Amino acid sequence: MGKFFGSLLRKRGSRVSTINDWLQIQIGGPEDVKKKRPKGQNRIKSTKYTLITFLPQNLLEQFRRIANFYFLVMTIISLLIDSPVSPMTSLLPLVFVIAVTAAKQGYEDILRYRTDNVVNSSPVTVIRDGKEAIVKSEDVCCGDLIVVERDCDVPCDLVLLRSTDPHGKCFITTANLDGESNLKTLMVPRDLPTVDLPEMHKLGMIECESPTTDLYSFNGKIELKGGEGRVLPLSAENVLLRGSRVKNTECVIGCAVYTGMISKLQLNSRLTRNKNASSEIYINRFLIVILVALIAIVTLLYFLKRYNELFVIPKLTYLGDATDSYSLKQFLQDYLSFLILFNYLIPISLYVTIELQRVIGSWFMEWDLELYEKETDQPCVVNTSNLNEELGQINILFSDKTGTLTKNEMNFQQCSIDGSKFLFRKTRLEEEETKALLDINKFSASQRIFFQALSICHTVQVASGSLEEADAGNAKKELLASAKTGPPEMYSISDITEESHNSSQQSELNVSHTIESSLSGHPNGANSTAVSSDVNPLLVSSDSYGIERRKRPVVVKRSPNFARSNRMHNAPAIETNGSQTLDPNGASSGVDPMQTAPNYRPISLQFRRSTSEKDLPQSWEAQNGQAPGHRRAHSYGAPNAYLSNPISASTPPTSVLFRSTSTASRESYAAPTFTRQPTFLVRAESQRRKNEIRDFIFTLDYQASSPDEKALVEACANLGMVYTGDDDETLRVRIVPPHMDYKRPFAKPKEETFQRLHVLEFTSDRKRMSVIVRDTEGRKWIYTKGAESYVFPLCANSSAQLVSKTDAHISEFARLGLRTLAIARRLIAEEEYQDFLIELGQANSSLENRKQLSEECYSKIESNLDLLGATAVEDALQDDVADTLVSLQAAGIKIWVLTGDKVETALNIALSCGHIPPDAKKYFIIDCKNREEMLLHLNALDREIIFGIGQECALLIDGKSLGVALAEASSEFRDVAVKCTAVLCCRLSPLQKSEVVSLIKSSNENYNTASIGDGANDVSMIQEAHVGIGIMGREGRQAARCADFAFAKFCMLKRLLLVHGHYHSVRLSLLVLYFFYKNIVFMGIMFLFQFHTLFSSSSVYDSLFLTLYNVIYTSLPILFIAISEKPYTEEKLMRTPQLYKKNTDNKQLHWPYFLMWVLFAIYHAVIIFYFAFCLFSYNNVILNYGQTVAFSCFGTLLIWTVVVVVNLKLWLESMYLSFWYIFTIVISILGFIITTVIYNVINLDYDTDIYWAYNNLLASLPVWLWILLTSVACLVPDYTIRMLQRALEIKSFSIFPGKQRKLKMREKLEDTYL
């Protein structure tokens, strides 16, 4: 593979060579300036065709279908022989079907081409030969230096070489890659020398591995030029992948390594296998049966014709002498003539009608308002319309838990510290045994160390920049507001206080929005009339204190690697020294020199960096610049709820607040009005300061790689340990002390700093992450956080007793459905740390097995840990998840939940959401080590199910045991597990999830499976199942993009399956059976006609009727009912999930149904033909003017009756009758009449002569009576059987054994004699 990519790149002319499957890329591109760079190297292509290949490739794909290929052969044969009918009868329908399908596929490919062009033509800034240039994205070459600015997408895979961040960091989001929307941190390679920008192309050579699909690994190195000659290792943290987006970093520069179709994103975007609906198996079976019947009919008629030629025709002297010789040519002529005559037994328009039905049906799902989520403006999305009917065939549903059954919104609930359990109470801890409330001042040493570990053992980023910037930004906003409307209240993190424990127990009363009165005078001695609001001062708006989305301050902070910038962002002006300001609405009383700076960047790349993200205008912002409140903002009171002293730019902030009465509050509580009641004031101030803490945390805007990590950091901040960001790997944690009296001056909080030395990243194999830090005393510590099953074995023997207590607490947390993590740490000796550095350096320098060597190095340092405790966070259930799961189980769908959580946590969630019935017998398979143990468990479970006499049984298995089952006893595990009511698989990796789905698909029972998930880790499971369903959740859109169907909430799955799945299954079954029925009626009459023509292979129909029968006469009603049929109302299907079972396993496409439709078709053909035959044989004087009818009237009368009967038959079989549907039936019959009238008045001597024949029939009253009589005779049995089934509630076709009935009989026999 590497050689292929290398040769491909060399052919394109780039400076790329391969040595032992490794790529060598010159930084900055080829050194030869005169050499022309290749174009299109970074072009992406998602189209299937080109202008040259479209026609041959599309035709090849279409003629792979048996019906299309069959009609192609028939058309060729009809052109080669003396055809009994016009070749156009086969050619025109074939051309119509091929053209419609080709137009549909061509249009879809044009849309893909336009989308590709938008991406390929997007401008990219590159540095070539020390000069900046803007080129199209498709013209980027390997080795080019690419400039990527904030909020821009990365155009190809880059090695990061320069960042405006002073510490060499780059923050990105990778939602397009792995579905995760959280910030990730990349780094410029360590020890990379700083050179001027014009000299960057002389840095050296990058040597890296050939591109792979793994998004999380990269092995390479930089060989520096010049006298240094050093080699710097490259890893995944140094690479920006195509599809990621730069955030919170003003600008970065990288060297292109993988471009175009060999970038990691494109390698992961390869088309997966095509999924086909199970109904196509039955359609192909029916086609084979009809094809065999066709060959049998043709062969029978041929031999009957030869018999007549040998024994009958010689006796009929008026026919002349019989031919003496019989050649091969005559044989082919006779045999193929019959084949051409009956080729309409194969319904050519079946496929194109199915395609149209599926596409229109997918539109109905996307238009369904019940599948539309108003909050996010997200409708249902159908990515694969050819699986619509599969939604009604699901037997087993595989579901993820986190983000699918739960909301993926984490809230810190409980913790275990030093063997004691505590409950989290917003700003305090409550000890479970004593019920004592502890604030940060009363924490013991172990408690402080525990939360200190939580506040630094993470990779959380503060999106708003440093704390000083956030404080400064808020202060400037308040100064701006003060200049406009009134005096704001100035607070920073140091102003956030909490009352003492004596008053804390009463502070939970929600009185923050109750407005009280106070007669206290202004501190300056004057009564204040200024108005303030109950809006958090940290988020105060500049326009009448309206709540506005937080605007992060723009603070210029330059990297030493970049010159001062001349280009500035258009940020709102702020007043710093009394100068005039520009308000958010654009009105200004002066000119800010920063606003008049030109918006450009000179060639020398003079960048400036804002250390905080500047919000871009959003689509929902009002035209006047105001925006809705922060999404986490709470309801605040009305203006004039607070009064404070006027504050000017030079006035220090005060901590004393006074209240005035207000009746305009947005929220009202039944609390009495009071005056001078300090207790209530303290309570109100306590609640207000809780809100301040919460709002300031939102102001910091923590960005984490997982919601669990963010919940833990926010919990620490609420308790008073506020993580305020990192500066050059220096972690800062502020300790905010509480105070008893709200009027007491605020003391400056203490700040703890730690130097972060290393981050040992979390992986799905390690199930933990660690950080190595150095405290202010120079000691080095390692803090580890992860799954208890992986952390406990790393703890020292001295922690054995604590491990036992903590494990018991973790089990209690899990039974409450909480997600748990264990926390540990230890002191690292200097000598041990130096050894670790040496081993880690060797591992990073290795180009092979780098990951394995690094993890071995990590394992050595992560040992002999001292356990600190454990955390428990809650993940709330999705809306209506219990009702959805219970309904699906009632519909006969078995549900398997595949999760990475531990067994106890998953079990509690499964019980609370209804996945496992409360009275079900639960069987656990935990820590199974080999095949023998697994077989013992499976045999015991099998006996429990058999002798349980109908009792529901649930299986719970962990990842370790499942690995044994998949590797050593897969078939035994599958056969027993599918008998369980519910299956819960815990601690699974993404690969194991897909393996479980694949195992069930391999069953001989042919289960139809569906998988549903919301994260990138569910993609493999979603793509493996027969039907993949994605939820557009908090973990990104990767699952939704890879799924066949996607929507916003799990509860919508109920409607998708029970309503849309049921409807589409019924509709497709009716469509397929009706197509075979109407063609058998059509050709059945032709077959009977041959017995009365000495098997002469003559056609009873005119060629026009053969051509238009499937195109006009019978196509519209079946298409309409196939997209609108509703055997039950939507409400009944939602209330009665058991109705879903009526269509599973494609019951309505089984042989009994097909044979019944065939029998009706034969009956109708016999009735129509012999009624007409008798009419013409015994008395053919049926015309108004008393003349006998011609032979041309016979065929015309037959086709007229066929069109009427088959359309009325469809009306009889339909359940949902609408005026539009009846109109389609009427218009189809009228379409036959109109086309035939036009055709028969034109004297064409082309095929048969029906000149004026149909007009004579139309004018004949006996003909109309005959059609009425024939139609009634045909449809009376259909109507009678249908009414008897409804009146007597007879189950259809119960006399046929069928596959399901045979299986039930076999199971009953086995249970009886076991």
Automatic annotation (TrEMBL):
GO biological process terms, semicolon-separated: phospholipid translocation
Family statement: Belongs to the cation transport ATPase (P-type) (TC 3.A.3) family. Type IV subfamily.
Span of domain P-type ATPase C-terminal: 1040-1288
Residues passing through the membrane, by range: 67-85, 282-304, 335-354, 1071-1091, 1103-1123, 1151-1173, 1185-1208, 1220-1242, 1262-1281
Cofactor(s) the protein requires to work: Mg(2+)
EC numbers, comma separated: 7.6.2.1
Residues annotated as binding ATP: 400-402, 709, 762, 785, 819, 899-901, 987, 993, 1017-1018
Protein name per UniProt: Phospholipid-transporting ATPase
Bias (Polar residues): 502-532, 576-588
Residue ranges constituting the P-type ATPase A domain according to the UniProt record: 122-247
InterPro entries assigned: ATPase_P-typ_cyto_dom_N (IPR023299), ATPase_P-typ_P_site (IPR018303), ATPase_P-typ_TM_dom_sf (IPR023298), ATPase_P-typ_transduc_dom_A_sf (IPR008250), ATPase_P-type_domA (IPR059000), HAD-like_sf (IPR036412), HAD_sf (IPR023214), P-type_ATPase_IV (IPR006539)
PROSITE patterns the record matches: ATPASE_E1_E2 (PS00154)
P-type ATPase N-terminal domain span: 36-90
Coiled coil region boundaries: none
Compartments where located: Endomembrane system; Membrane
Topology of this chain in the membrane: Multi-pass membrane protein
Reactions catalysed, as given in the entry: ATP + H2O + phospholipidSide 1 = ADP + phosphate + phospholipidSide 2
One term under GO cellular component: endoplasmic reticulum
Residues at which Mg(2+) binds: 400, 402, 1014, 1018
Residue numbers spanned by region Disordered: 497-532, 569-639
EC class: translocase
GO molecular function, one term: ATPase-coupled intramembrane lipid transporter activity
Keyword entries, A-Z: ATP-binding, Magnesium, Membrane, Metal-binding, Nucleotide-binding, Translocase, Transmembrane, Transmembrane helix
